[in-house]
Amino acid sequence: MEASTMFLVKALLLVCFKVCFTLASDPDPIQDFCIPKPITFPHHHPFSTNLPCKNSSEVTTEDFVFSGLKTAGNFTETGLATVPVNPTSFPGLNTLGLSFVRADLRPGAINPPHYHPRATEVAHLVKGRVYSGFVDSNNKVYAKVMEEGEMMVYPKGLVHFQMNVGDVTATILGGLNSQSPGIQKIPSVVFGSGINEELLVKAFGLSLEQIGMLKKRFNPVMSNEH
């Protein structure tokens, strides 16, 4: 009886492992490509791999070409501009398990610590000098000043960051192995999500007033109210 129970437990663990592993990445495509129809359905997520496809006779070369990375996006007050590329803006990516981003940083600007819960990212520095790195689960930092032409990989789910340490605007092209990688910026997650203030005071050893200032800075709703 004990042996059969252990066998059942092992079998269930094996099935769970296989299911979890399968769900850990985008599903494999079941056809060459799937260009989404230009119709919005309220029950479909914009990055869903289940969007209805165009008939292949309606697909053109232009569906597989994207020109939006030629120029920088709109710069924020912090000096960062991004152009995200996903199936919403580039239909040819749908079901292929890929997305991209162009990031431009003015001198001294940063891309704050953040992570992608569903994707590994490879960053290629096209122009400039950028201090770039990530932090592993043991809180060890892997970082260096990247020069033009160098690449760096940020493992899935690990916090990473970039800072322009050069004298010109830096340009980075990033590729991610999911069409819906997700992004969570640490400052906004901690101070802009509505976490209890008392908890934050105890966690960071700051005063309630200081926590309030940080929440105002990183909470879009509070910022718009003042």
From TrEMBL:
Residue ranges of every copy of the Cupin type-1 domain listed in the record: 67-212
Binding site for oxalate: N111, H116, E121
Cellular compartments annotated: Secreted, Extracellular space, Apoplast
Disulphides: C34-C53
First and last residue of the signal peptide: 1-24
Family matches, as Gene3D superfamilies: Jelly Rolls
Name of the protein described by the UniProt record: Germin-like protein
Organism: Brassica carinata (Ethiopian mustard)
Lineage, broadest ranks: Eukaryota, Viridiplantae, Streptophyta, Embryophyta, Tracheophyta
